[in-house]
Amino acid sequence: MSWKKDNSNNLDTYFMSVAMNLAKERIGLTGLNPSVGCVIVKNNKILSFGQTGFNGRPHAETVAINKCKKNELRGSSIYITMEPCTHYGKTPPCTNQIVKSKIKRVIYSSNDIDIRTSKKAYSFLTSKKIKVKKGLLKSESKKIYKNYFNQKNNKKPFVAAKIACSSDFFISSKNKFITNQYSRDVSHILRYNFDSILISSKTANVDNSELSCRIHGLENFSPKRLIIDKNLKINKKSPIITDKNKNNTIIFHSIKEKKKLRYFKLRGIKLCYTSLDSNNNIDLKKVFLKAYSFGIGSIIIEGGKTLTKSILKDKLINEFYLFKSRQKLGKQGKNNISELNKKINFFKVKENIETFLDGDKIIRYY
Hints:
The chain is an alpha/beta fold. It contains 13 helices and 16 strands. It has helices at about 10-25, 60-65, 95-100, 120-125, 140-145, 145-155, 180-190, 200-205, 240, 260-265, 285-295, 305-315, 340-345, and strands at about 35-40, 45-50, 75-80, 105-110, 130-135, 160-165, 170, 195-200, 225-230, 250-255, 270-275, 300, 320-325, 335, 350, 360-365. The protein has a 9-stranded mixed beta sheet, sandwiched between helices. A 5-stranded mixed beta sheet has the order 2-1-3-4-5, sandwiched between helices. The protein is globular.
């Protein structure tokens, strides 16, 4: 693939935009590491490209470099959506690989905020006589790394929540679904974009949900399942306990009954004892901190009325999605959440998500 224009700024912008698109594809799939896109170019032709691996490794630069033949990279340019790492971790520094490959130019967008690397790549690479350009499409990369910057700065996952209701604010009725299929598909895309999904055992028992991503082709990218279950009252026949993904489940509880604990441990369920808050409920702040220690960088909460009310009241989330059906339930509706409107007002931005939903609406608060 080649680009014919002569203007170097246009060229750089074009190739960086390709890298940005690669980074966007992996958002929510790279654990605590940022989703990075990388493109290597020589003579205005793309030699290779890379993305951060699932769960965070290998890094995008490593993937792109390893696709090229020996000496093919000499004199090339590498476009990276984030500053390449300069520190030794579980893998060697990407800057070392860049130097070794004889790459001539490095163009990256945002500085990393990891203190082990932040703002170190520029001086290191220029000391090796490599031309460096930074800050290209920075505003675009800030959008991509919003969640990453948030969890890195606060040492806890980026947390969002969603709830679906009728046009008159009821969240349940005799029918299983309130919103239409289009809204439900968007909901599953949200699951795909987050590391994990959190619900209460009460919601799990009522819905009997697998908490999976049911978009064709994305089933293998279903999020980790986090369950708030103070007294381990989850139905033992729940898919969360019995299906093939049960090893991808963490239950946060506060009991010490050995018999109960043993039952779940023998079935491969990870249990995490968590202390209670002042209201005698599982302390969600501690849940988020423990989730981060397990390598979870983002959480989508699909709670019922009680959990949603609690997280909004205590301002525990970074963004909120309200899925609103066009149907009115009236006397058939149960669990009205109209009072939650008052609890959402701490968000600065209210945005209608523009997509075809056949009458349904999605409102995003952040």
